[in-house]
Write a structure and sequence with these properties.
Elements (H helix, E strand, L loop, with lengths): L1 H8 L4 E3 L2 E5 L3 E7 L9 E5 L3 E6 L2 E7 L10 E5 L3 E7 L11 E3 L2 E3 L2 H19 L27
Length: 157
């Protein structure tokens, strides 16, 4: 579901010295630019439920405690075109209110504008899931969207 929503609405990346990261309600995507010609044998990647480490050609790219927990047995990494490492982490908490403000605790933080846009995107993704007959991919949102937006679950249908 989120893949189609992301294809239509785009992503809100948080730029870093090594590439970028972005998120959906379910996943965190990390894209790392590496020297052209890098082989998979030159990549060392540890994906834990609460920690992550990436080394390329013996150089540490990043290492630390993730902002929140993930399902480590569902995490993957790929090397694409020998110049891009793509890591996909599956969030444990898949609510729209679970918007990561940084990739690692205290590192690779989204600035205020990017954080705001990420939260808006997750809230619209939540609305799309709750209302599959509507297309929220190009929608604008204002007002109470932090924490996943307003809770309509108590309203009668």
């Amino acid at each position: 579901m989120s893949v189609h929503f992301e294809e239509r609405s785009g992503v809100i990346p948080c730029r870093t010295p090594w590439g970028s990261w972005y998120q959906t309600m379910e996943e965190v995507f990390i894209e790392v630019n590496v020297p052209h010609g890098t082989s998979a044998k030159e990549v060392r990647c540890h994906l834990g439920s609460r920690d992550i480490e990436l080394q390329v050609k013996g150089q540490e790219i990043f290492k630390g405690r993730l902002f929140d927990t993930t399902m480590s047995d569902e995490a993957t990494w790929t090397l694409e075109d020998k110049c891009l490492i793509r890591i996909i982490l599956m969030k444990t908490n898949r609510e729209a209110g679970n918007c990561w403000s940084s990739l690692l605790e205290g590192e690779y933080c989204a600035n205020a504008w990017v954080q705001d846009q990420m939260q808006r995107k997750l809230t619209l993704e939540r609305f799309q899931r709750e209302n599959p007959g509507f297309d929220f991919s190009g929608a604008e949102i204002s007002g109470n969207f932090h924490g996943g937006g307003p809770d309509f679950s108590s309203l009668q249908k």
